[in-house]
Structure formats: structure tokens, C-alpha cells
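Cross-posting from the modeling subforum.

Setting up a comparison between two proteins and wanted a second pair of eyes on the formatting. Protein 1 (sequence, then C-alpha cells):
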Amino acid sequence: MLFCSRKCPIKRDNPPNIKKTNGSPPPPFMLCSPEELLQKSQALSSTWQRYLAAPSFESFVELAVSINSFTEFLIDKGVTALHHASHQLEQITLALFNQEVAHPLPQDALDDLNERLLALGRMAITHATATADLVERRHDLLHPTPHDLHVSQTWLIGQDQAAWASLLVQLGYFGMDTAFITWEQSLPDTAGVAPLLLLDLGSLPEAEWGHRIQTLRQRFAMGQLIGLGVHSDFEQLQQALRSGCDSCLLQGTSSHAIVEHILELNERHEQEAYRVLIVEDSKTASHLIRRTLEENQIISEIVNDPRQVLNALRQFNPDLILMDMYMPNCTGVEAARIIRQHGEFLSTPIVYLSGETNVALQVDAMRLGGDHFLTKPFNPVFLNAIVKSKIERYRALRRTMYHDSLTGLLNHSSGKNTLDMVLSSVVHEGGFMSVVMMDIDHFKQVNDTYGHPVGDQVIRSLSWLLKQRLRKQDIICRYGGEEFLIGLPHTDAEQALAIMDRIRQDFSQIRHPVGDRHFHATASGGIATYPLYQNGDSLIKAADEALYQAKRAGRNRIYTDED
């Protein structure tokens, strides 16, 4: 797949015979498909070959960007060993930027880079082949419909099953096929379909951690390894993470907190691609920037005339603006000030690009609407890092505005607005849409009896369950207090009833811990469906009336507007 320097060519590996997965998603916690992994690896190989064929500073920059792109791609993909190797390669490549080296690089540097790239390519093939096999096996076992459970097999390795009984049960409610096995037992062959391993390190002598974790990491290179029962001291955490654990949860962490951590892992890959608006009068420079961003899966739009920036902002809705400082007809500072006059773009980050080195002028530029300043020529890897960090903070800020802080779901106003937008799309396309109002039964009694922190945990449990069981395109909103608004596009009343009743049943089985005891909570729901009701407000009102009918009938049940 890769070859070494011109001095010592190495025969390329033949591409692996990877079966097509027919669009099937990778197993949970392995957050990339084998095709994606191979494609990225082969793109990196091609970039290296181009550098060897025509070594120059420009082609070396392209190589550095490609390595950075590969490293970024591997983050949170459940391929820890591969990501570690790629990150080391990235560090070595970036270090060469800081040295006064000519191109081609010295032979020892070429040989070192080639050896690392070749090893990286082989690891990618190994992981891709393993993932393809897992997907194929899952496909044979599971044939989910859009609303079927999101099932994954999970193994908890420890000594005392009774100590983890509550956690095993809780994971089952959230669609995870969880099994317990002792450290002395060997994982059966079927364990290959389970990408998530929970390790009770507290039940194992610390001297054995390194060997045990490394062995599991080698066997489950594509999986997630989570260490449980680790003390908070630096040495224990360092040993567990260095040996191959992806994360650690400290001793005393509750079952609910462990479940929350696992569920969050499954949500990380769902965020939309970053979007950047490039405002640059030079077509050559703007396309080079776009190419750099695309290497890191960042979508971009180019505006060469700053006078068109407002229209582009409304149509493209970017997460960040890259703004050239000096353009004909309008400077970058003037454009930024004009953008800041519009409330909807007041918080959109603006990063200036300029050859300006005068610090005073840079400060003035940022004072007048900018957020950061990059001096040309800039390191493309640094550009990507700045762009991503600014967007992540911007999205976090936006999330606090539109999402409920307790559950992470849409808040009241953004939920209603989203419902109206999705309903408009359904009306245009034709079909059904069901709206559900769901409420936790006797919630005041839960708060009065067990306290508000426990009540908050009950609310979070229902929100987790809804997020696990519903589709990405479904609307889930914390409407207020213990009440939830749910929108199910292209779902009729009968389908909605079956979906929500299954969720209701499983919620009623969740054990909510209070000290050394636990209790169960229940929920009721009401359903209304378009086209019987023509707008969002009437759907919500009808679903709310059905909810109160369910409560009057005895609670812990789901009613439709026809009941």
C-alpha cells in the first residue's frame, strides 16, 4: 500500500478483499466503516507517493495536512492503537516544519517516515478487515427496522458478578446485550461482535493491569475499553490509559453515571460536519484554503466579493468565517462590522487571514468584530486546529441556547420551532407525522420522597432511553419539568403507539438507586397524528389531551387521540 523512499522501494501490499457492507453501519463504538478507513489510508499513501515523486515544500505541506486529516479522522473512532500511531507520525512531521531542512528530506528522515507510514497502512488494513467481518456478522444476526432497538453486545470482565448486577440490568434497558465474564475465563469466539469491554480493574491486582489490558487491546483493536473502579491517583490512571484503556471511571462511580458515559460514546459521531465560509478575493488562495479544510472533512463555501457575504451567510449558515483582511471595495474589518449588525450572526466566529504583522492593527481588527488573527503564510495544520477549536466552542455556546442543560435535549422553544419545520417538510412531501406528549407519573411524589437530585436522574434516564430508541431524524424535546415532546415524522398513529409503548415498558423496569435501595418510575403518553391535525399547535394540544386521558385511566400507558 505504501512504499519507501526512492532509494529503497518496497512492494505495495495488495488491497484487502473487503466485503461490501451494503451501507450497514459499523458495530456500535466502532465509529467508522471499513471503506472509510481504507479510503483515508489510501489517500495518505497517495500523498506520500506524490511527495517522493516530486519532493518540495508544497508537497510536504500537502503530506502534513493529509497526516493531520487522518489523525483527526481517527479520534473517537474506537481505534486507539491506530490513532496513537498516526498521532506520533503527525508530531514527527510537524517537527520537521520547525527545522531548516531542504527537500527532499534527508535519507534518514525519509526512511523513518516511510517505515511509520507503511506500518500505519498495515494497521489500517488489519482494522478494516476486522471491522468488515464484524459488520457482516452483525448483519446476519440483526435485521433492524427503523424503529428497532439499537442492540450491541457488551462484556463486563471482573470477579464478582453480583457487584455489577445493577449495571448489567440498566444496560439491558438501553438496548445493550450485556454479559459478565470473570478474568479467569476466556472470551468466547462470539465476543468478536462486541466492541465494548468494561473492565473491573478494582478486582484485579494492579501489577496485572498492564498485561491484561494490553492483551485485550491487541485482540479487540477496534473496540472500546473502559476501565472501572480505578482510584483517582495519577499513577493508576496513567497505567490504565497507557496500557490501552480508552477511558477510566473512578471507584465509586454510580451505575447511572457509567450508563451515561457509555451512551455519550455512542452519540459523539452524530454531530454534523463543520461549515466554514471563506471570504477571500483571491480565487487561488480561497481554493487552497478550501482544499486544506476538506482534508479534515470541513465543508466550505467561497465568497470572492465581500459585498455578497450577507446572502452567503443566510444561505450557507456557517459555523465560522475565514476573512481576508485586505480586499478591493471592502476591507475585512468593514465586512466584520457589517456582519455584527445582524443579530443572528453576532456570535459567529470570525478569523482574519492577513499578512499584517503590526500587532496594534491586529488588536484593533479583533476589537472591531474579529475573534482570531492568522498571519499569512500560515501552517495549514495550525489553521485546521484553530478552525476546529473555534467551531467547537461556538457550537457549545449555541447548544446552551437551544438545548436543555439537564438532558441535552432540545428546550421548549427550539423543540416547537423544530417541530414546525419538520411538519412543513412532511406536508410538502406527503405522509404522516405523529406527535407525542410524554410525562413521568407521580413525579412530584418522586421529588418529595427522594429529593430533587434523584428526580433529575429519573428525568435523565427517560431522556437517555428516548435518544437510544428513536431515530436521528425524530424530534426529542424536554417540554418542561418532567414532560417531553416527541415528533415522529413519517410515522402513523399505530406505528407511534407501538414504538412509544415499548419505550414505556422498558422505562418502568429501570432501577433508580437511592442509597442501598432502589425504586421504579413509570410514564404515560398521548399521541396525535397529522393529517388529522394540521399544524404544530393543534398536534401538541391533541397529544396533551390524549396524555391526560392516559393519566385518568390509571397512568403507565400510552393513548392516541382516538382512544
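Protein 2 (same layout):
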Amino acid sequence: MGVGKRRDCRETRQMILVRNLRLDIGQSSDRLKVKAARELKLPTWAIKDVKITKRSLDARRKNDIHWLYSVAVSVDNEEKLLAKCKSKNVAAYEAPEYTVPQASAEIRPVVAGFGPGGMFAALVLSMAGLKPVVLERGADAETRRKKVEAFRAGGELDPECNVQFGEGGAGTFSDGKLGTGIRDMRIRWILRTFYEHGAPESILYDAKPHIGTDILINVVQSIRKAVIAHGGEVRFNSKLTGLVTENNTLRAVRVTDETGEYELPCERLVLAVGHSARDTFEMLEKTGVPMEAKPFSMGARIEHKQKMINISQYGEDNESLPAADYSLNVHLPDGTSAYTFCMCPGGEVIAAASEPGGVCTNGMSNSRRNGENANSALLVTLSPEDFPYDGPLGGMYWQRDIERAAFKASGSYHAPAQTVGDFLTHKKSERCGEVDPSYKPGVFWCDLHDVLPERITSVLENALPELGRKLNGFDAPDAVLTAPETRSSSPVRILRDERRQSQIRGLYPCGEGAGYAGGITSAAVDGMKCAEAVIQSL
């Protein structure tokens, strides 16, 4: 696959990168031109153009919180200037480009799932001229939003259209974080694509980019329209229910929609169904698709006042600063570990069930992150040896057991909740303290030791005081634990080779659900790579 960018994404080349430019809080970004000129030892007028490439908040010293910027600048005689400049903060700037090659196929490729992995696989395949068919078991984003809101207001759960299933996948109802631990030249193209379809420009340079649910709902619809404009087709309310194979090679897929079941010819299937498609995992196991149980994590959401997190991280609650976040982990003496995940500043805990009779939680933030509370998953690392069930779906069945136990505890989709102080003393909570839980349709006060397995609660008991030493107030007695958080990642890995194919030839397991990604951006990257593998197979 060549390195290139679409014509509509082309960026200026031959620029100079200037790093570590400091701006005080409240200082205008207009000052960056002056600071860059000073670093380059040039008059300000010599700087023709300034483009922000990275922005991060330096809060290591609470009495000296400031922004650090990297900028790309355009000047005359760039090469000559670079040759004589001795500053370690100055380097040549190159924007990697990404190009989608053209291809053709007699039978259209199929993409199952329209979360980040499936969405970017479909976008690349459609731009390549392959006119993919996308199967999404849930509804379009706007219909999905209405159904999620109705469920949170106390309505019925739609098992086919909820926080987990529908256009945009589980990431649509999240904080919309785009940060990732992987390094890949495709990431810039992904961020650019999000920006071109309505995300804020800041995602192109923020060290911790995020979009927010309120914006993501529109962004994913715009990307879907781009897939269609390039010749692709998106079929909502269409669930993958079977594979038709011949000599260990994919020949067709079975699809169930509102009219019944039909067979769709298919020789190349990008399987991007997400981490909650349990019925699909069961179908794949019965079909003989090789898979294995993988480590994953479960626990609860922990909720604090955002003001408290701001003060702990910044030393003050300053409206000029963004809502503070955190990322914590602890390794305990007995070999167990716990960590925070999917932290949502100014967000809320949401009902994330996808199966009737089960309760699970997740976190969500809107773009402004201006809610009263902060929340995060507080998770315990679990391995297949911990699972009470054998086989590749052992972790999945354990998830389901815990979610059903939570539902049984309250007799409804109200989530079991307990203050941290009561949890640490094994005392049933009767009410909240300073932190009012944000979960809708509401919480059921209880002792979480009666709901969560001892393997999880014992680790959380030991971890909370340690994490409180890392972030002041994290283990405050009034902090609220809302459980269970079971869908942090897939409990299953669908095996694939170096060409991203299963032993079932033509099947490309993809993204978070297949066990190869952990978040919006990494799933999107994997989707692009799977699409590239499909193109290369033609």
C-alpha cells in the first residue's frame, strides 16, 4: 500500500517543525508565530504560515501549568535554514500521505459491523472502487440515539439497537477518545477524515484528542454518506447469522433483516462486529472458525465530582483549564492488578446493556465535557485461568453471568451502586453522599460484594487505597461505584494469519470485537489494514 493522502486531504510540504513552544493559560495562539520566529532566529514577517501540529497541557507543576505547542511553519529557503539551525526543537516537517489504490472484483466484499473498524474498512474499500456491502445489525445513528434515550428514560431495551449495536458502534456513545498507544501513519488520515466529516479541528493536533457523543452522532452519519457516494451500500437492521463455506473457503453469508433470512454471495468478509456480538461469536464457534479466550478486564465505574478531579490534578478548579482527566494503575503484591480506563471528564455513567435481563455500564462525555461528575472504569485484569468456564467463549459467559446477577439484584435495569466508603467496609449503601450518581434509569443501592465475584471485589478493595495515594481523593468515601463494567474489551480473539485471514479463507477478523484493537482509533487502523489485505488479495 503506498503512502499518500486523498487529493482533498493534501497538505503543504516542505515546512519546518518547531517544537516546545510555550503558551501560558489564556495566552492567544497568535503568539505562536512570534515564538516560532524567535526559535528560528528570524523576523516575524519571515514566517509565511503557521500550522499547529500538536498541543499538550503541561500540568506536572501545579504552580506552573501551561500549554506546549508544536507548529509547522513555512519560510523561504527551508533547507538552508535547517542546515544552519542548531536548536533541538527544530526539524524538517513531513506530513505522511495515504493513498487508496484502485481495484476490482466480480463479487462485492462484505463488511459486517459499522463501528470504527467496519466503517474505515468500508470507506477504504469503497474508495478503492470495490462497492462494499455493509451489514449493520442496528439502526442508523439518529434512530439509535432516540432508542438509547428512551431506554435510559426507563423504556424497553432493544437488543438489536442500543449502546453496543448500531451505526458508529459502541464508540459513538462514549467520550469519543481518539488517543491510542499505537504508532501508525494511518492515524493522521483517520483524524483528518473525522475532521472533514464534522469533528473539531483540535483533534488534528491535541495530544489527547476527543470528539464527544453529541458530535460523533453526526460524524458517523457523514462518513456513511461518503461510503455510499463512493459506491458502497449500507444495510441497517441486517444481522450476519451464518457463513457458507466450501473447502474451507467463504462462498456466501447468511443475513437476517426485517423481511427474513437471505443468502448474499461473498468471497471476502471483513468481520468487524464489535466486542458485544455474543450471538455472532456463538455462531462462529459452531461454524468452526478458530478462536480463543483472551485476557480482558471487568469491574465497575467510579464517579467523582469533576471539581475534585480538577483540584487534585491542577491544584485549583480553573475554568480556563480543560476538565482534568487521569489514568491510573496499580500492581498489587499478590500479583493482581487494577487500572482505570475510558475516563470521561465531565461525563456520565450510561446503561450499556445489549441483552435482556442483564445490566452493564459504560461512560460517555459530550464534546464540552461540562458535566458535574467525572467517571472512569475501574477494572481488574483477568486471564482465561480466572474464568469459571472453559472454551473460547468462557469469558463471554462469565460476563453474561455477572450482568444477569446485577439485573437480578435490582429486578430491573437499575444498576447496583455503592459508595467507596461503604464498599471498603462491606456495608450496604442506603444513599449517596456528595456525589450524585449520573446513571440512568437509576441506581440500586446495595453491597457490591453480593453482586460482583470475589475475584474482582478483593482486588478493588486492595487497589482503591493505593490509587488514592496516586490521585488525592480517588478513594474518597463519597465516591460512587456503579456496576458492573463488563464490556471494556472483547473476551474473545478470532484467530488470523499474517495476511489477516482466518483459516476460513476470505474471512478477515477485524477490530476490537475480534481481539485486535482497543479503542476507536486502533480499531479504525485495523479496519484500514483489513481493507488493504482484501485489496491485496484481488
